Every structure is written in C-alpha cells, then in structure tokens.
C-alpha cells in the first residue's frame, strides 16, 4: 500500500525539524564556547566531528536501512537523538561535544536516507517530488529559526547558565515523532543486497552524476558559511550582543523557510533548471550589494544585519530543487544509495566550509567574509551550468 503524501507530511516535517535543531545548534555552541575561551581553531574542527561521521557511515547505513526498513531505522535514529539531547545538559567537558556531534551526525545520516526514501517511494513525478521536497525541507529552516530564537532568549535571560537545558525540548519532540511514526503505515523500498549496491556504484561514475555531487557539495558549503558562523560574524565584526546576533541570524532561517515554502507552491509552474539558475543570479546580485556596502560604506554597517538574511530567500530552494531533479530520475531500488552519496557530499561541504571559516575568524579576516561567499557562489553557478549541460546531453 502506498501511503499518501498528506499522511506522511507531519512526521517527516517534524523529523527534519528535530535534525535541524541538533545540527544547527552548532552556531550557538560555537558562540558560547568561544566565550569560554575555546579557540576558533578547535571550534572549527568541531564541525568535522559532526560531518565526517555522516560521510563515513552513509554507505553502511544503506545496508542497515535495507535490513531493518526505513520506518524502524528512522525511529531508531530519533530515539538516539532524544537520549543524547537529554544527556548533554549534564556534561561539561569539551570532548563530550565531539562525541555528541558524532552520534548526532550518524543518526542524521540514517534519518535523511530514510526520509528521502519514503518520499521517493510515494512520489515519482519530478515537479510533485520537488514540491514535497521543498515543503519537508522548509521545516529544516524552521528548526534553525526555533533553535536560534529559543536559545537566544535563554542565553539573554537570567537563566543563561542553564542554556544547555534547552536541548530537553528536542528530546520531547523526538518522543512525539516516534509516536507518530509508530502509528503510521509506511511503504518500504525494495530490498537490495550487497552485490546490488556494489554493482550500482559504477552507475554513479557518469559525468553528470559527478557534477551533481559537486553541486551538492558547494550548496552546503555556502549554506554552512551562514548557518554556523553568521552569529559569530555579527558579534565579532558588527559588534552586536549575543542575543541580537542569534536573533538576526534566525531571520536568515525565517527567510529560508519562506523561500522553500514559496518554491513548494509555485515550482510546478516553472522549469526546475531555470528557477534554480534565477535563484543563483539573485544571490550573486545581493552579495554584490553587500560587498558595495562594506567597501564603499561602513564595514560594520548595521544594514548588513538585514541584507544577509534576504539571501535565504534564494539560497534555500537550491538544495531541494537540485536533489528532486536527480532523485526523480533514479530507480526506487537505488534511492537509498543515491541519498547516501548526497549525505556524504553534503557533510564534506559542511566540514570544509567550517574549517575555512574558522581560519577567517582566527586570522581576523572577517572583512573578506562576503567576498569569500561571493567567490563560492560564482563557482557554484559555473558548475551548475556544466551540470545542466551534461544532463541535457545524457537525456
């Protein structure tokens, strides 16, 4: 039986909300631990403890999910996230953050493969898939907004020393999601064995597939430059307090949510490739405005607090649109394997971005922040054009 998209929508959105909160609390952790005299170099590599396990475990997760099914695997991942979030407030040592993010990364790898698999096994048409992907991934942006706003309020209150107890709310949400999935009949993807997976790897060695993974890498590379480091950029470069830095950053997530929600509702009217390209052009346009403000106005101008979040309107649709275009062309038997590679390249993009950002911060090169992102977006634009060209030749 095929489960209707309307029936799976709420638990899938809640799942992405939960994973968004635990993954994107990195900005808060960096902000708080930097005040506790943890160096930016150490904090930059903290992201790798989240992203590298995601990359490493993804291929193994395919076998795990095929053996136990998407529903049971997803419930397992949510259970571990809930337990870890309830333990974190009671641990003080820095090394535990490394372990915590590593476990969260593994659970996210399993969870994302399961979510993409559930969506692909219920929807096959390209634009309908793009609509659902944008709708579900929009909740990821709400998670960023909620975690920045909630923790920002807690940090600025008289209970700021208890900021880590905010993670208890994630445990509660995980319990709710588990209950919803336990009552929901979910269509499982066809089982695959190890031989099939190994033979399918060669199918991903085509030029257009390699370019697709490169595009995924750079999209997340750019997103992570904002999600984890924008609060610290606001505080260290624009000299605003921690609360306002987190609140201003949460507006990026709010605009990103709007961008994905609007895309979900209008995407069926447009060519996916043209819509994607238009979003990239608009991002470059806004970054040129920011560059102009920094170099011909004041480098610490408060107008930057409002310009950076607007980028979220056009950056946020890129990831679900490009994913849905590729996923719609992949056989259902291969969706878990494809998703594992998407997760791998996403995590690598996130990790590399954070390491480079930590170097910018450590060497006091924050005046190059917008230029660095502009160069990355320009490179993404070029690679994306090559991808669409190769995709056209492949069809």
Enumerate the spans where pLDDT stays under 50 for 5 or more consecutive residues.
none
**Average of the residue pLDDT scores:** 81
Cα shape: globular
H/E topology pattern: HHHHHHHHHHHHHHHH
The number of helical segments is 16
Helix content: over 70%
Structural class: mainly alpha
What fraction of residues sit in β-strands? under 5%
Number of strands: 0
Compact overview of the structure:
With 395 residues, the protein is mainly α.
Report on the structure:
- There is one protein chain.
- The protein is mostly helical.
- The chain is built from 16 helices and no strands.
- The protein has helices spanning 5-23, 26-35, 40-68, 70-87, 94-120, 126-156, 168-182, 194-201, 207-227, 230-237, 242-266, 272-296, 304-315, 318-327, 335-362, 369-394.
- It is globular, with a radius of gyration of 20 Å.
Write the layout of secondary structure elements.
Elements: H1 5-23, H2 26-35, H3 40-68, H4 70-87, H5 94-120, H6 126-156, H7 168-182, H8 194-201, H9 207-227, H10 230-237, H11 242-266, H12 272-296, H13 304-315, H14 318-327, H15 335-362, H16 369-394
Helix pairs in contact: 1-5, 1-6, 1-7, 2-3, 3-4, 3-5, 3-15, 4-5, 4-7, 5-15, 6-11, 6-14, 9-14, 9-15, 9-16, 10-11, 11-13, 12-13, 12-14, 12-16
């Amino acid at each position: 039986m095929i489960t209707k998209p309307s029936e799976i929508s709420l638990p899938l959105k809640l799942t992405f909300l939960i994973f968004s909160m635990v993954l994107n609390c990195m900005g808060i952790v960096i902000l708080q631990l930097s005040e506790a005299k943890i160096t930016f170099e150490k904090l930059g590599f903290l992201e790798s403890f989240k992203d590298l396990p995601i990359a490493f475990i993804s291929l193994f997760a395919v076998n795990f999910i095929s053996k136990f099914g998407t529903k049971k695997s997803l419930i397992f991942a949510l259970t571990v996230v809930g337990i870890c979030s309830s333990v974190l407030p009671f641990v003080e040592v820095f090394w535990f953050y490394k372990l915590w993010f590593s476990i969260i990364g593994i659970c996210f790898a399993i969870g994302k493969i399961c979510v993409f698999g559930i969506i692909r096994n219920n929807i096959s048409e390209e634009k309908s898939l793009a609509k659902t992907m944008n709708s579900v991934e929009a909740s990821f942006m709400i998670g960023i907004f909620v975690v920045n706003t909630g923790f920002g309020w807690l940090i600025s209150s008289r209970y700021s020393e208890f900021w880590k107890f905010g993670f208890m709310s994630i445990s509660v949400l995980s319990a709710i999601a588990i209950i919803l999935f336990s009552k929901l009949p979910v269509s499982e993807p066809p089982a695959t064995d190890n031989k099939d997976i190994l033979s399918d790897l060669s199918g991903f060695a085509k030029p257009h597939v390699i370019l697709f993974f490169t595009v995924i890498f750079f999209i997340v590379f750019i997103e992570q430059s904002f999600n984890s480091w924008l609060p610290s950029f606001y505080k260290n470069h624009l000299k605003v307090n921690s609360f306002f830095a987190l609140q201003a950053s949460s507006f990026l997530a709010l605009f990103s949510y709007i961008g994905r929600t609007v895309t979900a509702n209008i995407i069926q009217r447009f060519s996916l490739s043209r819509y994607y390209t238009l979003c990239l052009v608009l991002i470059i346009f806004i970054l040129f405005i920011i560059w102009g403000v920094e170099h011909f106005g004041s480098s610490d101008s408060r107008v930057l607090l409002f310009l950076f979040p607007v980028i979220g309107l056009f950056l946020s649709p890129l990831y679900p649109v490009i994913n849905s275009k590729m996923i719609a062309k992949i056989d259902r038997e291969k969706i878990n394997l494809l998703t594992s590679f998407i997760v791998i390249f996403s995590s690598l993009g996130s990790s590399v971005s954070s390491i480079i950002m930590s170097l910018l911060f450590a060497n006091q090169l924050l005046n190059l922040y917008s230029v660095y992102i502009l160069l990355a977006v320009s490179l993404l634009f070029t690679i994306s054009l090559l991808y669409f060209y190769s995709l056209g030749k492949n069809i």
